[in-house]
Amino acid sequence: MVYFHEGSWILNGNSKQLHGPEYFMDEDIVLVVPNNRLHIFGYMSTEDYVVPGNMALKDQVAALQYVQDNIKFFNGDPDRVTIFGESAGASTTNLHMRSSLSKGLFKQGISQSGTASSAYSIIGVGTSLNFTKSIAARVNCDNADTQQLVNCLRTIDAENLTKEHMNFLFSQPEARALFRPVIEQKDVPGAFLTKSSLLTTTSYRWMTGFTTKDIAYKYGGFAKQGIDKVLSLYDKNWDTVGPITLLLDDTSSDPVGVAEKVRKYYFQDDPITKEKRDEITDMYTNFFVTNPMILDIRNNFGKTFVYQFDHLGEYTRAYGYGLPKNESFGSAVHEDDLIYLFPLNYVFPDLKFNDIDLNISKLMVKLWVNFATYGNPTPEKISQDPQNPNDDKIKWTPFGFRSKYLLIETNKLSMKRDLLKDQYKFWTSLKVTDKLRSNFDSRGFLINKPPTK
């Protein structure tokens, strides 16, 4: 099992402080936790042949090749490699399922709270180049010729370049200045992601899911800045703020029109206030996670097992995202499912599960390991009550035509159907990513290429 870490393309890294092996070591698996380059060093792109981009993803390909060549020396099986990840790592897992560079290097994947079609997964055409030029100007390397620009950047101390990148990042609204995966031109040697690979269907066995209040961290971020002040800005200036907060300027041909429809769907004609906390969280969760997830599920022809994680335990990431201690979302938020797979010592240095949370952790590890071992999280039926192994049994069945998914609650596992049917229908009626896809011609070449030397 190879884990690609979370961290918004800029943070974390795999280490024992975050992704220790303790919970998996009672199982008959080999756990691999590689690192890759991050932020400007992992995802910068001039969108031409000088720095095509996706260096971090190519690092991961190298790690997977290392696993193929060497896992036998750790009693692992190179023909039974499962890749998995959360958030950014979940998106990269799904991107590997689409990339020709990764073909043959793994058997199946698990994506937790993120897929390839998520708005934060792919950067808009021209945006990465503009970011690169902006940061280059900060270190006196601005040059119209991309080769000369990059040559200059290579003379800059790495710590200084990192500092200027972070200063630029925090000078921009929302997450707009995040370097992230980019679509490469078809004829770039060793391209990881092209238009054809992005739009291709996949046929892997796949397990994917989300937490009920997944993108609650957006609301938590508002709380840090003053919730009433921020929501007043959203309410009065939605035509400006909406396209920014939903990253529509990069991906949609009609960002203002799409934003207006989103406001109408989630808030009707009501003002956007803190009384709309659940609607705000659902809007972000549907946009960034669940709608793209369902879209990618429908384009995967392998058996796909889908879950919704709804257990709120003693430990939660909600307060780390800025939610006041006297408030609760009443359900699991982003990364809460990860708490039960890895110790996350850096976040929870004194973590010690109570009996209820320990049973959830044992359940989660067993489902993940079963999928890695058998390609099925429940090769045999399991108890429908995580707290009572002698309860009636249940089997997790694939998504299929009924849009079936496993709801994981504190005291109950249950199979549901028609996952977020109405929300999915709404989002797919909008022009959310048409601009991103229209920048390439039918052969996969960028229209109006940036100048290259």
Task: Write a structural description.
This is Carboxylesterase type B domain-containing protein. It holds the Pfam family COesterase. Keywords: Glycoprotein. Residues 1-427 form the Carboxylesterase type B domain. The chain contains 17 helices and nine strands. The chain is globular and about 70 Å long. It has helices at 16-19, 39-43, 55-70, 88-96, 127-138, 146-153, 158-170, 195-199, 217-225, 227-236, 238-245, 248-251, 255-267, 277-298, 355-374, 421-428, 434-438; strands at residues 2-4, 82-86, 108-112, 205-211, 304-309, 382-383, 393-394, 405-408, 413-416. The chain has a single domain, classed as Alpha/Beta hydrolase fold, catalytic domain (Rossmann fold), CATH 3.40.50.1820. Helix 9 (217-225) crosses helix 10 (227-236) and helix 14 crosses helix 16. With 453 residues, the chain is of the alpha/beta class.
Radius of gyration computed on alpha carbons: 22 Å
- Main sheet properties: 7 strands, mixed
| Number of structurally distinct domains | 1
Helix proportion: 25-40%
Number of strands: 9
By CATH reckoning, the class would read Alpha Beta
CATH-defined architecture:
3-Layer(aba) Sandwich
